């Protein structure tokens, strides 16, 4: 490298290190904020274009799959109708009992946000078009339409926020299985999630739903994480683990809900 | 045209181009099945055409812009791209002396592998996540293909221009 290139390299290297080590400094935060604001309109346009294009692309290429899944969904739908009828009876009963015990209903205040940007080649983080001006703050929980956990707000700017999904390696959620009530810890592996720290003598059933238990005080209770795909038990391991299948791919979400407050 | 006027126009143009490229990468390419890193292709192109200082600056700026939506701390992506560019510049000057199809092929392969390796090294990631699966293969093939197409077009342009001037 020439002397000029070396100088350029070291100046830029120094700048990168300053940005990394003083990431919480007001000047760097302001720089980040303005940069996000400049990129935002372009990102909205491109995300809308990509949503439209990839929707039609998937329609064209997945006609066979759509037909097959439609047949499967019809039979599932009939089964769900049956369960729904029983559930509405239970809900009514639950409402009456709550009234009798003076318990308040679970109410969550959410804000709808559109996904406008994604991380390169993985789903560990994505950008949404709502920020601090919409009441979004760092640490807030992000869910999907079906009340499935997606992640948390890692960084909130004025009109844009970064969501760290539960696939991220830093993500830890205390969870419990829906029917067998086996507790454990859901960990992000980068491209998947795993249900870890399951007591050795307990094995959750395959297909069983895993929901957040709320015992960690960070993630709210009662939100679906996924279902058990495979249970792994090894003699030399202290705990059992289980692979979790997410109910829908994080890549498929165009819009999400941010929980502003829950009672 | 006034030189200052031209300079400011080129700066605005470059800034707009970078913003466009970063938004397209974050909001379009990353949401799709396409495994492409446009900034990596840009850096490889600049290194191969010996625009070293431009490659360093574009790498840093590209890293900053795409780093806004990076799972690791802000600035890591620009550090990764900057180190990668420096290594590629040194490597190109030592190993590859002429711009041939083989050198495009090799430098692209090294670029993609090195980018993933540096990402794995500097971020909290699992080795298998960066080096297994079809993603790395498709990224490799598409990067090489795009670079070959770009160089084919540019050489074709130069040749037609030369023929035209010779005929004139």
TrEMBL record, chain B:
Residue spans crossing the bilayer: 7-26, 32-48, 55-72, 78-96, 103-121, 136-154
UniProt keyword Metal-binding present: no
Key words, A-Z: Membrane, Transmembrane, Transmembrane helix
Superkingdom: Bacteria
Descriptive protein name: Rod shape-determining protein MreD
């Amino acid at each position: 490298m020439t002397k000029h290139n070396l100088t350029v390299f070291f100046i830029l290297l120094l700048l990168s290190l300053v940005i990394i080590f003083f990431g919480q400094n007001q000047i760097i935060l302001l720089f980040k904020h303005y940069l996000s604001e400049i990129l935002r309109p372009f990102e909205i346009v491109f995300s809308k274009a990509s949503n439209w294009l990839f929707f039609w692309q998937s329609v064209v290429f997945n006609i066979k799959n759509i037909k097959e899944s439609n047949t499967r969904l019809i039979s599932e739908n009939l089964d769900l109708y049956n369960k729904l009828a029983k559930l509405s009876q239970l809900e009514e009963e639950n409402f009456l009992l709550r009234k009798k015990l003076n318990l308040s209903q679970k109410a969550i205040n959410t804000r709808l946000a559109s996904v406008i940007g994604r991380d390169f080649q993985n789903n560990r983080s994505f950008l949404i078009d709502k920020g601090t001006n919409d009441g979004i703050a760092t640490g807030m929980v992000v869910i999907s339409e079906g009340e499935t956990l997606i992640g948390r707000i890692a960084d909130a700017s004025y009109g844009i926020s970064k969501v760290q999904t539960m696939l991220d390696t830093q993500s830890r959620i205390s969870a419990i299985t829906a029917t067998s009530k086996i507790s454990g810890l859901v960990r992000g592996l980068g491209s998947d999630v795993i249900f870890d720290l399951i007591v050795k003598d307990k094995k959750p059933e395959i297909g069983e739903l895993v929901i957040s238990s709320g015992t960690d005080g960070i993630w709210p209770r009662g939100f679906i994480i996924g279902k058990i795909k495979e249970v792994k038990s090894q003699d030399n391991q202290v705990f059992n683990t289980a692979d979790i299948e997410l109910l829908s791919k994080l890549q498929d979400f165009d819009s999400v809900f941010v929980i502003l407050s829950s009672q | 045209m006034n030189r200052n006027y031209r300079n400011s126009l080129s700066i605005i143009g470059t800034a707009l181009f970078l913003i466009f490229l970063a938004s397209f990468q974050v909001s379009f390419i990353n949401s799709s099945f396409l495994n492409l890193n446009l900034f990596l292709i840009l850096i490889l192109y600049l290194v191969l055409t010996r625009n070293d200082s431009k490659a360093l600056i574009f790498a840093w700026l590209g890293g900053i812009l795409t780093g806004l939506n990076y799972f690791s701390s802000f600035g890591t992506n620009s550090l990764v791209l900057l180190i990668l560019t420096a290594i590629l510049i040194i490597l190109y000057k030592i190993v590859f002396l002429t711009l041939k199809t083989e050198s495009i092929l090799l430098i692209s392969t090294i670029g993609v592998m090195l980018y993933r390796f540096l990402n794995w090294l500097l971020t909290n990631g699992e080795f298998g996540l960066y080096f297994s699966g079809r993603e790395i293969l498709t990224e490799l093939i598409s990067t090489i293909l795009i670079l070959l197409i770009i160089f084919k077009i540019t050489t074709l342009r130069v040749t037609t221009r030369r023929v035209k001037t010779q005929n004139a």
